[in-house]
Design brief:
Elements: E1 2-4, H1 15-34, H2 40-46, H3 51-54, H4 56-68, H5 72-79, H6 81-100, H7 105-119, H8 122-133, H9 139-167, H10 172-175, H11 177-191, H12 196-207, H13 214-233, H14 246-265, H15 281-311, H16 316-323, H17 325-342, H18 347-366, H19 375-401, H20 408-446, H21 454-466, H22 472-513, E2 527-529
């Protein structure tokens, strides 16, 4: 067991001022992954494109973001974390403005790529700054503050995006970042400094011959682009049933590229993607938990608005209002979790409790029906978001507790990548699961809907009387159409409830994965690196 002194930062800026500064860019970047979702149809219409083509606005951003996340440790080491953070904020802000004034879909996609490349550095850098700014016994509170931005943004994103799009224009979804970004850039320029250990490491790195892992970066691009396009277009292209072999080609590229990337990077002296933090058991376990927990969050956050809008008739704003109380409870709970961690509570038990609460919330939603009121949707959603709020800070404390300082930059980048990719997987899988289960339930419900079923005959007779227009044939057709509409409605509802049930099972299994972790208590004044 190696005990390292806590890093010291230059300057007299208090940790709370640092926290207030760095969580703003994080919130802004995470918000941009969800705020544009509800505006896609408006973007496509405004730029004379199809909705399917408009989805590349999301895919391009996520792919560019995912390329940068695992190499932020290398970029921070080369440029200095403060310099890289400032550069990321500046480019992200300018790119956001360019997205807002784009005149064609191709322009918008190009600017979104730039925005994603710049935004990829914001989460890892801000998380690293918080870890260094707070002493060891307050690491839980530091991760709580980071969690406030990382968790609140995807919750309020659809609601805010819907309101901005309805009241103003889809362009303001991007333009809103410009004033906030410049304020954050100014504050970070004035207040942030690199800690001593990063300054020393950078000076030592400058003395060595410059080497860049171009092969590793090339394989990373192939893996990430293949992965994001698979997730984005998988259901549209029928996954491995794609007759044009687009999906099959992407799967092969992804599999071969990932194997080659891991093989190459583990043997490279200066890898662009450092997988070595995954050798530490706590970090690897937390990566698995965070990946699937965020997949569940984004999957549920995609499925619930779809349920409310398609079957309950809610518009985007009203659906967002039903979901938004969960964000308030998340804000209230996270400081409590931070205090518990600061008082020596083992992060594992808080993490397991949060996962169980998430499982309970998803199971509750799986038991809903089409006769519920808005208030009966609010509380299950509160449990899901509350559970993840209870998981976030403990998972981050446990993940980095045994990670050596020299690997922290790479570890933060990897965990941020898996957190984002978990969200992408959850969104894609929720869509696929719903469509496949919708088909299943439509067929199952149709097994009993025939004229020889007395209940069906009674329904048709009663409904035909309601549609009586003097034409018996037309009235009968309308009655059968009403029955078909009910079948489709019930099949879609059952498919959504199946999604929530699967999410509940996933989070319940994750609660047992916590048992693989080591004791995770942040002790005052020390940092444990190694066994």
């Amino acid at each position: 067991m190696t005990v390292l002194a806590a890093p010291r930062s230059h300057g007299a800026t208090t940790p709370w001022v640092v926290a207030a500064i760095v969580v703003v860019p994080t919130f802004m970047e995470v918000l941009d992954t969800t705020i544009a979702v509800v505006a896609l149809r408006y973007i496509a219409g405004g730029l004379s494109a199809t909705v399917d083509d408009g989805e590349w606005v999301l895919t391009s951003y996520l792919a560019a973001n995912a390329i940068i996340l695992p190499i932020t440790g290398w970029l921070s080491a080369q440029l200095g974390r403060r310099n890289y953070f400032l550069l990321s904020i500046g480019v992200f802000t300018v790119a956001s403005g360019l997205c807002g004034i784009a005149t064609s879909l191709n322009q918008l996609i190009f600017f979104r790529v730039i925005q994603g490349l710049a935004g990829g550095g914001l989460q890892p850098c801000s998380q690293g700054v918080l870890l260094d700014a707070f002493p060891r016994e307050k690491q839980g509170m530091a991760m709580t503050l980071f969690g406030l931005a990382a968790l609140t943004a995807p919750v309020v994103g659809p609601t805010l995006g819907g309101w901005i799009t309805d009241e103003y224009s889809w362009r303001w979804v991007f333009l809103i970042n410009v004033p906030v970004g410049f304020l954050a850039l100014t504050a970070c320029y004035l207040k942030l400094h690199d800690p001593d250990y990063l300054t020393t490491a950078r000076l030592q790195l400058r003395k060595q011959p410059f080497s860049f892992d171009l092969i590793g970066l090339s394989m990373l691009v192939i893996v990430v682009v293949s992965w994001e396009v698979m997730l984005s277009k998988g259901q549209e292209w029928d996954w491995l049933g794609d007759p044009f072999w687009r999906m099959q080609t992407l799967v092969i590229l992804f599999g071969v590229g990932l194997a080659g990337l891991i093989f190459w990077e583990l043997r490279h002296r200066n890898p662009v993607v450092n997988f070595r933090p995954l050798r530490e058991r706590n970090f690897a376990t937390c990566c698995i938990i965070i990946f699937f927990a965020f997949a569940v969050l984004y999957g549920a956050s995609t499925s619930l608005p779809g349920l409310l809008q398609s079957l309950f008739g809610y518009n985007a704003l009203r659906a967002g209002l039903v979901m938004s109380p969960a964000g308030l409870f998340s804000l209230l709970s996270m400081p409590v979790i931070g205090l518990l961690l600061g008082r020596g509570t083992d992060a594992r038990w808080l993490l397991a409790t949060g996962l169980l609460v998430m499982a309970a919330g998803n199971y509750w939603m799986s038991q809903m029906n089409l006769d519920i009121s808005p208030g009966q949707v609010v509380w299950p959603r509160v449990l899901v978001v509350l559970g993840l709020s209870m998981c976030f800070a403990p998972a981050n404390v446990a993940a980095y507790l045994y990670t050596p300082l020299e690997l922290r930059g790479a570890a933060v980048g990897l965990l941020s990548l898996l957190r984002n990719e978990g969200g992408s997987v959850g969104t894609s899988m929720a869509q696929t699961l719903h469509e496949r289960r919708d088909q299943f339930h439509t067929l199952r419900l149709g097994d009993y809907l025939d004229p020889f079923n007395p209940a069906v005959g009674s329904f048709i007779d009663q409904t035909q009387k309601q549609f009586d227009t003097g034409d018996p044939v037309a009235s009968q057709q309308l009655a059968w159409q009403a029955l078909e509409n009910l079948r489709q409605q019930q099949a879609s509802a059952l498919a959504y409830f199946d999604c929530f049930w699967i999410f509940a099972v996933v989070t319940l299994v994750l609660a047992f994965v916590v048992l693989l972790m080591k004791r995770s208590v942040a002790e005052k004044g020390t940092h444990v690196g190694g066994e």
